[in-house]
């Protein structure tokens, strides 16, 4: 029996495993780095071990040593990168600890997507044709010597060439053999793009997985991404717990998942589950895992097998009524599964709430999360609720630049898909998130979109559909700004040393109105002017709007006989206004602003804190508009900083490895016209 368990990951992952351990009476051990020493998962564990460097979560040796020092007798890898590291699994076993997962041999078998596809083809699982690319360009072969196994990639680097023998037809998908989560993946629509895509994918894969091997396969456009949850014990029993639909993706990363898929018939479901069971049995799998497929008009095809629990596992738990972490632990202790899995009931949908800014190309965001409240949550990290929250953060946490920007998963369960979607959209729309910009409005837009509700989705859904609509329209922003101004006046009155009962700006005779100006999230300037008279509120441009009450944190306005309550929260330099009309974030504009430092024309500021990975050009080089100049790494992803115009790189302030803050000037481009004068 497991007595004390260490979770080799952080955030929501660790908190999820801890919850089940607490219910089973298993002591828990957290690991943490200097970057997240105050994170919730550290406080919730019975014991915690400091690892130091922010990247230490990926160091098998430090994790095993932490388990030894803490007295743990078992290690759960969570569902991060180490969970699919066969070397780590073997190190845990060699240390005499119980490993919560499949054997190192099974992990290794699925660790290379190239080798996994070959194994699956032998097991009778449908696969797409694919070609592995060499680690580096090979010497040019003699005429006629290029083979299907090694296409002439070196020719592609020299410019457009005819497709190499054996290379699938365009479009292609370049993928990291050891990858996942959209990293090391590039779409190629013509031959001239292939070399650059391969180089970029290989570089990203090497940074993320320490393995730069890539391969290409046909890109199935308008296909659906479905996956089957499998669970296998050491006695030969294998469960297939239905399928999950994961087609709503951006940059090949899942955004919304659900179970079951609205596109899978009972017959196709049986075929998918049979294929998943064959895949698990082919490698002697034990534990929880996921077999992923692409589903198109021509059938379904094996993508990969994730030898771990998936981020989206809660939707399966809701529909099948099982605790997958508990089953993982029991299997590791030698328990045998029932002959048949439970039957599914209802529908579940999960969204991934990310800290990212739609106005800046969905760049990850960092900063203090001043407030995080999801209304209606009746379960956290456990079964039995209609609205479940699995979150790695709480109010007051600081979201840094070292880790994935996912804040939480919100999961809705209902008797029908429509019920689950409506409940989830409503909860997200009413969620209060202060301090960070997120993808919340996008999630609500998708959940309410007619195509999503009809089930007409595929992996290109977000690329094809202009689904993003801010919850608060222009009119909602204006009236929210009025509420913010009234709340500010109420706060001033409350703090006034004398005559605090008088309305702000009170005059015995009519004078100028009170004025306030704000900048909205979309760059718009909102100005309001109002008076508080004996007859009530008189606000310019707000005919028919009357004031019911105004307090520093809450303002009630009536418009057209309908009352609206606005909750106003003020933080340094920003206001958040929440109402049924939609959440609004406002930046007050000072009447007499202090002079601010301005960048010289052509400056390339860092859009976020991060580490300089590469500098693509040298000082004095001529660059063209859109050409990459600097590549930053932040929150585990690469971000290209490109030249805004054609010109000369006149200033270069960074070198690879340098840590930079948001707004730091990385380089300056002197535009061509100016340079020629």
UniProtKB/TrEMBL annotation:
Signal peptide span: none
Entry-linked InterPro entries: ATP-grasp, BC-like_N, Biotin_BS, Biotin_carboxylase_complex, Biotin_carboxylation_dom, Biotin_COase_C, Biotin_lipoyl, CPAse_ATP-bd
Catalyzed chemical reaction(s): N(6)-biotinyl-L-lysyl-[protein] + hydrogencarbonate + ATP = N(6)-carboxybiotinyl-L-lysyl-[protein] + ADP + phosphate + H(+)
CDD domains reported for this sequence: biotinyl_domain
Lipoyl-binding domain location: 595-670
Stretches assigned to the Biotin carboxylation domain: 1-467
Cofactor: biotin
Disordered: region residues: 136-165
Occurrences of domain ATP-grasp (ranges): 117-333
Gene Ontology terms, MF aspect: ATP binding; biotin carboxylase activity; metal ion binding
Highest taxon in the source lineage: Bacteria
Alphabetic keyword roster: ATP-binding, Biotin, Ligase, Nucleotide-binding
Protein name: Acetyl/propionyl-CoA carboxylase subuit alpha
């Amino acid at each position: 029996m497991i007595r004390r368990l260490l979770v080799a990951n952080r955030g929501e992952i660790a908190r999820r495993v801890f919850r089940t351990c607490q219910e089973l009476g298993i002591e828990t051990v957290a690991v943490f780095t200097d970057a997240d020493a105050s994170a919730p998962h550290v406080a919730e564990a019975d014991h915690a071990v400091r690892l130091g460097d922010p990247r230490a979560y990926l160091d098998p040796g430090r994790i095993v040593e932490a388990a030894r020092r803490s007295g743990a007798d078992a290690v759960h890898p969570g569902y991060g990168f180490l969970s699919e590291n066969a070397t780590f699994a073997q190190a845990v076993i060699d240390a005499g600890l119980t490993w919560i997962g499949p054997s190192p041999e099974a992990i290794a078998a699925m660790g290379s997507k190239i080798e996994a596809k070959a194994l699956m083809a032998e097991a009778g699982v449908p696969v797409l044709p694919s070609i592995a690319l060499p680690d580096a360009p090979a010497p040019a072969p003699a005429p006629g010597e290029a083979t299907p196994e090694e296409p002439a990639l070196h020719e592609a680097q020299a410019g457009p060439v005819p497709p190499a023998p054996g290379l699938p037809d365009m479009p292609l998908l370049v993928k990291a053999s050891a990858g996942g989560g959209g990293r090391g993946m590039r779409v190629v629509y013509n031959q001239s793009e292939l070399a650059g895509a391969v180089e970029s994918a290989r570089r990203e894969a090497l940074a993320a997985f320490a393995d730069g091997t890539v391969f290409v396969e046909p890109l199935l456009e308008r296909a659906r991404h479905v996956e089957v949850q499998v669970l296998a014990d050491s006695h030969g029993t294998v469960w297939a717990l239905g399928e999950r639909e994961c087609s709503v993706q951006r940059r090949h990363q899942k955004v919304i998942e659900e179970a079951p898929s609205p596109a899978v018939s009972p017959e196709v479901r049986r075929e998918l589950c049979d294929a998943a069971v064959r895949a698990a049995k082919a490698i002697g799998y034990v534990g929880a895992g996921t077999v992923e497929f692409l589903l198109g008009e021509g059938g379904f095809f094996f993508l990969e097998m994730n030898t771990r629990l998936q981020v989206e596992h809660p939707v399966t738990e809701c529909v099948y009524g099982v605790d997958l972490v508990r089953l993982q632990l029991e299997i590791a202790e030698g328990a045998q599964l029932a002959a048949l899995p439970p039957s599914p009931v209802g529908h579940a949908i999960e969204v991934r709430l990310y800290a990212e800014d739609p106005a800046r190309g969905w760049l990850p965001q960092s900063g203090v999360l001043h407030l995080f409240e999801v209304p209606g949550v009746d379960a956290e990290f456990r079964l039995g609720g209609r609205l479940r929250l699995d979150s790695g953060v709480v109010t007051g946490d600081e979201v840094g630049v070292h880790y994935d920007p996912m804040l939480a998963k919100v999961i809705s369960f209902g008797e029908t898909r429509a019920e689950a979607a409506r409940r989830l959209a409503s909860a997200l729309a009413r969620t209060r998130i202060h301090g960070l910009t997120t993808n919340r409005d996008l999630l609500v837009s998708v959940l309410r979109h007619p195509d999503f509700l009809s089930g007409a989705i595929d992996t290109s859904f977000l690329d094809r559909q202009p689904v993003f609509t801010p919850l608060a329209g222009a009119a909602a922003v204006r009236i929210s700004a009025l509420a913010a101004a009234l709340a500010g006046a109420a706060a001033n009155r409350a703090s006034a040393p004398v005559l605090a009962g008088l309305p702000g700006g009170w005059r015995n005779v009519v004078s100028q109105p009170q004025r306030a100006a704000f900048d909205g999230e979309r760059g718009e300037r909102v100005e309001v002017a109002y008076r508080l008279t004996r007859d009530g509120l008189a606000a310019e441009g707000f005919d028919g709007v009357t004031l019911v009450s105004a307090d520093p944190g809450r303002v009630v306005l009536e418009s057209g006989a309908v009352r609206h309550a606005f909750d106003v929260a003020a933080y340094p330099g920003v206001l958040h206004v929440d109402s049924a009309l939609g959440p609004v974030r406002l930046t007050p504009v000072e009447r007499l602003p202090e002079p601010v430092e301005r960048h010289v024309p052509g400056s390339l500021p860092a859009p976020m804190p991060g580490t300089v990975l590469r500098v693509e050009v040298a000082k004095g080089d001529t660059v063209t508009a859109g050409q990459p100049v600097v590549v930053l790494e932040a929150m585990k992803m690469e971000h290209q900083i490109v030249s805004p115009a054609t010109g000369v790189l006149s200033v270069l302030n960074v070198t690879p490895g340098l840590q930079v803050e948001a707004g730091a000037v990385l380089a300056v481009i002197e535009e061509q016209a100016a340079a020629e004068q």
